[in-house]
Amino acid sequence: MEPYESIIEKLLEALKNKYGDRLVSVVLFGSLARKEARKDSDIDLLIVIKDLPKSRLKRQEEFLEVESHLEDLLEKTEGFVDLSPILRTPEEILKYPPILLDIVEDGIILHDENDFFKKVIEDLREKLEKLGAKRIKMGKRWF
Fold first, then answer.
1. What is the CATH number of the domain that holds 114?
2. What is the span of the domain harbouring residue 69?
3. What is the bridge-based pairing of β-strands 108-112 and 83-88?
4. How do the pLDDT tens digits run along the chain, 143 residues long?
5. Count of the separate structural domains present in the chain
6. Strands 43-49 and 23-29, how do they pair?
7. Helices of type H across 23-94
8. Looking at residue 34, what DSSP letter applies?
C-alpha cells in the first residue's frame, strides 16, 4: 500500500487539524481499498463532516486547505497521486446516496466517531441482503 500509507496518514492528520470535532468519518474506497491500485491510481475517499457548506464548490475550497498540507508529498510520489474526495454531511449519508453501494463491500474505515459509518454500512448490508441484491463483476468493473 506504500506510498499511499504515508499520504493517508498525513491526510488524516490534516483533516483532524482542519475540521476538529466536525470530522465524523473517513472511508477509503475504490482500487486502493480493493488492493488493485496502480502507480497512477487516485485515492478515493468519502469524508463525512458536520456542518459543511451547502455549495459543492465551497466544500472543495475547504478541502483544498487540507490538500495544500500534502502538496509536497503528493508531488514527490512516483506517478503523482491525486486525491478524489467526496465530502458529505452525516445527514446526507443517512439518505443512503448511491456512492455507498461502491463502499459497502470494499470500503476501509480510517476514522469513525462513535461508529457512525460502521452502523450505516451494517444497516445497508442488511437491507441489501433482504433484497437479495448481488454484486457482479464485468471485466474490471463491479455492478
1. 3.30.460.10
2. 4-142
3. unpaired
4. 566 888 899 999 999 999 999 999 999 999 899 888 777 788 999 999 999 999 999 999 999 999 988 877 766 665 567 889 999 999 999 999 989 988 998 899 999 999 999 999 999 999 888 888 776 655 655 54
5. 1
6. antiparallel
7. 56-68, 71-76, 90-93
8. T
